[in-house]
């Protein structure tokens, strides 16, 4: 597509064609217009600039010094226009793109909806497909190219995956404001297990970290409830005197409204969990997923509390 005909007036285009062909008639044939039209536009341009752009020798024309300067300017401008056109074509492609996402459950509570809402506002024509699954399955889906982007905790250390974003998050106890532990600033696992406890099932990423810490704790480690849904466990905590364990991801609304309280755990063996955005290192992202990933990382940097990864 010749975008210059839409973005620039005919005078500059006719002048450039005449300069390249060294002939007004040849330029007219190239442009599919009358010779008189080309000549008239060039004369008008010369009048506006107050100098001759061509030296006219019989039926041929030769650029003057002023004409050479103007032609160099036009060529630079057209080169910039080609680059701009490529960017415009890329944006046009985004209107038809697809972004496929695999995510753990906790991220769907607040973080991911806000990221997707912002992306949809900027690129309303892009289809976003979200699948909720366990942490191990998220990594597998990304590695097998079933999805473009994964939101997960503790992805495996493999050359097939690229960690684009990583944030260390403290694992704490969550309790209702009415719970006997609500007034304590800091807890440990042994203190929590003095009350009914809901533990994440094996396969939930923080379970392995809790098991290691419990093996070094005086707590009996006997839970009252075990579930593979963090959403279920936080609702269980809200409804009674249960204690559960989680990072702040997935608790945004409850903590803001003080329907739940997050209590840091002092157990030395309890290491932080790592929330990550992952992509495949074996294939590049298409334009739509790449733009989404860039926006997601920038948004999460603002949304999540600062901590060292």
Written overview of the protein:
This protein is an alpha/beta fold and about 300 residues long. It folds into 3 domains: about 5-95, Arc Repressor Mutant, subunit A (Orthogonal Bundle); about 100-170 and about 275-305, 3-Layer(aba) Sandwich (D-Maltodextrin-Binding Protein, domain 2), CATH 3.40.190; about 170-270, D-Maltodextrin-Binding Protein, domain 2 (3-Layer(aba) Sandwich), CATH 3.40.190.290. Helix content is about 45%, strand content about 20%. The protein has 12 helices and 12 strands. It has helices at about 5, 10-20, 25-30, 35-50, 65-95, 110-120, 135-145, 190, 205-215, 230-240, 250-255, 285-305, and strands at about 55, 60-65, 100-105, 125-130, 150-155, 160-170, 170-175, 195-200, 225, 245, 260-265, 275-280. The strands form 3 sheets. A 5-stranded mixed sheet has the order 4-3-5-12-6. Strands 9-8-10-7-11 form a 5-stranded mixed sheet, with helices on one face. A two-stranded antiparallel ribbon has the order 1-2. A hairpin with a 2-residue loop joins strand 1 and strand 2. Helix 2 (about 10-20) crosses helix 3 and helix 6 packs across helix 12 (about 285-305). The longest helix is centred in the N-terminal third of the chain and has 30 residues, at about 65-95. The chain is rod-shaped, with a radius of gyration of 32 Å.
